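Translate structure to sequence.
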């Protein structure tokens, strides 16, 4: 076992603190990664604070991991020492079910193994990227192209793929009118990606305070959802809406913005249900759908796409001692647009 420095939550009600965690020895198909940067996702906060159910503590979160390979197992073929690599929201799956065999490991019928707070196949509880090193089976490690710096690459492993996957699945591209609800960690990547795919992009935000940012990121239009005129002006005009907010919104009102056969896809994960008026769906043969992250193959595709188009997350790099402050700032929407931890600052 390898003992490494980390930051972990001792309980749902306490701040994260410096600690050490154990990593398994490198097996034949494993890769040891020296983590350089770890993004802070809103999911980290929900998880360690018990919003999504009880957890096993202490828990080191983090599923936006970028680093360098420092050791490989004897049978590893995909990666070598010195490679720039990333690890996202999952580190294992059954690899045998229909979804896994189709390259959709995120929808593993037996449940994929999350990067932290999950029971791995060997019975241990996974610990995440708020640490200096991690050991992951090679099949769940992706290559970070040279064209992307590691700090701006880290959030792509969650925020990037979470928005790229539905954009690709629902056919974002030239001639399509796409709206992004919320301009945060997920939303800013959705705007960048949809713009790079050639779509006409609209941001729907509570206010216009981030309008300049949204337009600079690639949006063609920016509207305040607090203004009732927005819903009148945009009614029946959109092909696809990506909802990135993790809060309750009036889904039925947003569905009315869609064209015939349009889709509203939820990637945010609010704790409370989102009621839907059936007539908002029936009236235009509209769809209300959900999407998780992408599979490993699609995650690699997303990274290559970002490198080709010069895309990375907008980040604020912080030392480990600022993690708890960053959590409070995320909850206050005071970040433009993703905090990334410099793991060299772990004691």
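Result:
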């Amino acid at each position: 076992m390898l003992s490494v420095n980390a930051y972990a939550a001792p309980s749902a009600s306490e701040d994260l603190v410096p600690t050490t965690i154990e990593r398994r020895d490198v097996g034949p198909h494993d890769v040891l990664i020296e983590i350089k940067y770890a993004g802070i996702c809103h999911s980290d906060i929900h998880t360690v604070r018990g919003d999504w159910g009880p957890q096993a503590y202490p828990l080191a979160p983090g599923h936006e991991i970028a680093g360098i390979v420092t050791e490989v197992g004897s049978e590893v073929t995909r990666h070598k020492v010195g490679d720039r690599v990333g690890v996202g929201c999952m580190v294992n799956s059954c690899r045998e079910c229909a979804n896994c065999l189709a390259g959709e490991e995120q929808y593993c019928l037996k449940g994929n193994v999350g990067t932290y707070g999950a029971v791995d196949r060997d019975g241990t509880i996974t610990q995440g990227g708020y640490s200096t090193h991690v050991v992951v089976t090679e099949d769940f490690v992706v290559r970070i192209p040279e064209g992307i710096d590691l700090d701006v690459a880290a959030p792509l492993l969650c925020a990037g793929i979470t928005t790229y996957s539905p954009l690709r699945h629902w056919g974002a591209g030239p001639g399509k009118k796409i709206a992004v609800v919320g301009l945060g960690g997920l939303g800013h990547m959705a705007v960048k990606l949809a713009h790079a795919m050639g779509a006409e992009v609209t941001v729907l935000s509570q206010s216009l305070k981030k309008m300049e940012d949204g337009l600079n990121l690639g949006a063609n239009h920016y509207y305040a959802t607090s203004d009732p005129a927005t819903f009148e002006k945009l009614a029946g005009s959109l092909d696809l809406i990506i909802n990135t907010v993790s809060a309750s919104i009036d889904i039925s009102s947003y569905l009315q913005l869609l064209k015939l056969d349009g889709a509203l896809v939820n990637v945010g994960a609010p704790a409370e249900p989102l009621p839907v008026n059936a007539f908002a769906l029936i009236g235009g043969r509209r769809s209300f759908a959900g999407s998780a992250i992408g599979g490993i193959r699609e995650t690699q595709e997303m990274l290559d796409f970002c490198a080709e188009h010069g895309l990375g997350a907008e980040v604020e790099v912080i030392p480990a001692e600022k993690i708890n402050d960053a959590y409070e700032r995320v909850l206050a929407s005071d970040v433009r647009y993703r905090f990334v931890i410099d793991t060299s600052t772990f004691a």
